[in-house]
Amino acid sequence: MAGPLKNIKVLELSRVLAGPWAGQILADLGAEVIKVERPGLGDETRAWGPPYLKDDDGAETKESAYFLATNRGKKSVTVDFTKPEGQEIIRKLIKHSDVLIENFKVGGLKKYHLDYKSAQKINPAIIYCSITGFGQTGPYAHRAGYDFMIQGLGGLMSITGESDHLPGGGPQKVGVALVDVLTGLYSTIAIQGALFSRTITGMGQYIDMSLLDVQTASLANQASNYLIGGILPQRLGNAHPNIVPYQVFTTSNGHIILAVGNDNQFKKFCDVAGHPELSADERFILNRGRVQYRDQLIDFIKPIIKGKTSEVWLTQLEKAGVPCGPINDISQVFDDPQVQSRQTKISLDHALASGIPLVANPIRYSETEIEYQTPPPLLGQHSNEILTEMLEYSQKEIEILKMNKVI
Length: 407
Fold this sequence. Notes:
Blueprint: E1 9-13, H1 18-28, E2 32-37, E3 52-54, E4 60-64, H2 65-69, E5 74-78, H3 84-95, E6 99-102, H4 116-122, E7 127-132, H5 147-153, H6 178-201, E8 205-210, H7 211-217, H8 220-227, E9 246-250, E10 255-259, H9 263-273, H10 287-292, H11 294-305, H12 310-320, E11 324-325, H13 330-335, H14 337-341, E12 345-348, E13 356-359, H15 383-390, H16 395-403
Parallel strand pairs: 1-2, 1-6, 2-5, 6-7, 7-8
Antiparallel strand pairs: 3-4, 9-10, 10-11, 12-13
């Protein structure tokens, strides 16, 4: 069967990561996504390289790996909507769309009469999702917001990184633009909820998404530790604030992750480690005590784990049912048999190169399959198609638009 969002049309007026991430997910789910880009320049991430895609002859193209990561399944149309003729094109696209995604600064589209109120007059059923750094209200609303600064402002860097008193300690950002990715995910959820609501009410609605809101909500248990327990979370490196032992340990030839999630698993670990007396120690019987006496327990465990290789520990712990794992680099991730068996890497033929590798959508439906309809588009690749087939512009009108640099 086709994807669950078949027949849904999405107009994407966003760039970089959060908005395009949401647009790509919707495309994977079967929606038709039209990405509007600036003539001649396009989405900023097209230039965010190297690396760049190489064509079938091995020559480097202008398509960055960054852009390719977040724009599959879309049709690219170039429109300069600072010009009246461009604004008219966007208004016609709004009339044909179910969803609009934009990530301009607060009020940025109002001067072009492309804000929500203007769009709603054109299409009352439109679901209009605005993604900004700080939302549409509040004292920071008009500030620009970027993932890195939101990780700092939103508390994530205060709990990420090694403890201050240790070598290399200090605040650390996550190694991927996680706030942008999470905002894309939350936006997708919000859009699908609004689509479902529309089936009941027949009305569209406005969605106000904020990177800072998403970051704060994603603090999860760390936020609750503070709000409920009055405990200010600190950087613990690879340790867990609420579970012990749950961290990275050094082995004789590398590192492993030990992730003991309950008291029974701790007992099993102690048996494998050859120290069953640890699980009978009153300080360590319950997780509550292990958190309280974290330093004493970890200091005891460290030399034990360092006495064997990673391979031995992983084999013995897995056999005993104790959660554990290696620390893979990204090449090892894609070589992992589990990752390969789940077909996490896909291949799509691009306009400039055959079989470009991309990462699959992790959703696995039983009935409505994820659709990889098209590869990431070239800049303006579908302008003629959309203008002629959807908006019914004549070739003469299109030529005039090109001459006036509207498209």
